Structures are given as C-alpha cells and as structure tokens.
Amino acid sequence: MRDHRPLTKATKGLSMSAGEKAKAKAEQVAGKVVKKGAHALGDDKTAAKGAALETRGKAREGKEKGKDTFKG
User: Around Cβ 40, how many Cβ atoms within 10 Å?
Assistant: First the structure.
C-alpha cells in the first residue's frame, strides 16, 4: 500500500527506501538525545522512552537494509 503523504524537502527526489532510511536515522538521533537529556535530569521514565525510540529507529534501519539486500 502506497503512503500518500507529501514528500518533504529531505526526501524529495530520493527513493522510498532512502527516505525511510533517513527517517530511521532521525528516530535514532532523536531517541539518543531524549535518552541522554533525561539521564542528565534523572528522569528514568523519559530515558526509557528515548531508548525505545532509538531502538525503533535501529529496527527500521535494519528492515530497510534487508529490503535492499533482497532487491538485488
């Protein structure tokens, strides 16, 4: 099923896989920032949410790498 959201400046002209890879990397970076900031403030609950976001980004990146492997 095609995603009907408009392309952003960051993903315009890139293949769908490249856009998804960029999204995965952005999730990883955002998760890491949230996690580190929450640790500095001593907020364990928010740090866990940041770690989960970072992990989701890594999983998404792995999925995209796998798709590229099977494309040939």
Answer: 9
Q: What is the pLDDT of residues 2-58, one digit of tens each?
A: 555 555 555 455 566 788 889 999 999 999 999 999 999 999 999 999 999 999 999
Please return the burial class of 24, using the count of CB atoms within 10 Å of its CB with bins 0-12, 13-18 and 19+: buried
Q: Could you give the CA distance from residue 34 to residue 16 in angstroms, rounded to a whole number?
A: 27
Count CB neighbours of 29 within 10 A.
Answer: 13
Contact between residue 52 and residue 31 where contact means Cβ atoms under 8 Å apart: yes
Q: What is the pTM of this model?
A: 0.71
- Give the SS3 label for residue 68: helix
Nearest to 35 by CA among 60, 56, 22, 54: 54
